[in-house]
Amino acid sequence: xxxxxxxxxxxxxxxxxxxxxxxxxxxxxxxxxxxxxxxxxxxxxxxxxxxxxxxxxxxxxxxxxxxxxxxxxxxxxxxxxxxxxxxxxxxxxxxxxxxxxxxxxxxxxxxxxxxxxxxxxxxxxxxxxxxxxxxxxxxxxxxxxxxxxxxxxxxxxxxxxxxxxxxxxxxxxxxxxxxxxxxxxxxxxxxxxxxxxxxxxxxxxxxxxxxxxxxxxxxxxxxxxxxxxxxxxxxxxxxxxxxxxxxxxxxxxxxxxxxxxxxxxxxxxxxxxxxxxxxxxxxxxxxxxxxxxxxxxxxxxxxxxxxxxxxxxxxxxxxxxxxxxxxxxxxxxxxxxxxxxxxxxxxxxxxxxxxxxxxxxxxxxxxxxxxxxxxxxxxxxxxxxxxxxxxxxxxxxxxxxxxxxxxxxxxxxxxxxxx
Length: 419
Description:
Blueprint (H helix, E strand, L loop, with lengths): L1 H5 L3 H16 L3 H7 L4 E10 L5 E10 L7 E8 L4 H17 L5 E8 L7 H15 L8 E5 L5 H15 L23 H17 L7 E5 L3 H12 L3 E7 L2 E4 L6 H11 L9 E3 L1 H5 L5 E4 L18 E3 L8 H10 L2 E3 L1 H4 L2 H15 L5 H26 L3 H20 L4
Parallel strand pairs: 3-4, 3-5, 6-7, 6-10, 10-11, 11-12
Antiparallel strand pairs: 1-2, 2-4, 7-8, 8-9
Helix pairs in contact: 2-4, 2-15, 3-15, 4-15, 5-6, 7-8, 7-13, 7-14, 13-14, 14-15
């Protein structure tokens, strides 16, 4: 198991994090058996006719980890490195994430092993619709509600909604979240993850007496979550000194002009070559002396081999699982304050919940209503996790897992087992 974790098996990391928290809680073994593992795992073949006329077969997955507190909820990602274990890990984390912010969902996740950067829009549509047809028995507004994730977006959700609705014979916007506004999407959904990260960073800085308007920040990953987090921190007066994406890293000791960098990324598709910045390596970015490090890329980026180089005071996990357990132990020994992923990046699923509620009620909110509700949820969850951390004298990750697992365990105990 240790060898697999060292190689980056996300599911082993998820199970180890669960066991660590469950041991700290002295969780009953019968409850562990009922909540530790996924309830359903679906693997599907997704044949797609490509633009050249040939059929290409993709592998797809949908995992429902838990539905004990409500419908399953989780994104769908398109990425060449998608594996079943990764999807199982992400579904597991979604269960605890929903419970930490106390919304009535369980955890799910989906994915297709593909390279969307080398596929046309029509190929992506055909693949999405075929995948939706394959997972159709599992999804539904009262059953399992997909959302965007890595390399999927509102257009992807529109295709899923349409495919599902066509099979039912009437429009069902609540089958997915993260939809276009014109199809029942929610205002504020696009920036929800980054905004949630920002709110938890505000709380952490207040707790540690670090003035946010003088803080220095490095952001690893400049997609949706990373760029919006950087924008909000920049607007709050923080100095974002380094940013990376899949093409490279840029650094400026005087701070990067984040609005201009976002504009350049939108035009050119990369951050490399940004004016008044210098290139640095990915390893150098992680090792920068700064107040706040925001890992906003993929999982397992900070490990035993590079964690000791981290000099940040706060790590805000905008990505899912960017630290593995070995890195956690090293950073804890260094006194780094970690805002764990299931708390830090829960803004996305929280506003997805808001969208689902609006769809079900056929009543939609103003953007400021969404922001205000999200801020209340995120800051309440931060305070609740911090209280567990202080009362139980455990790291923040264990505290967050204890809070989430405890709520799921309570629901299982109240529902009992059927038959």
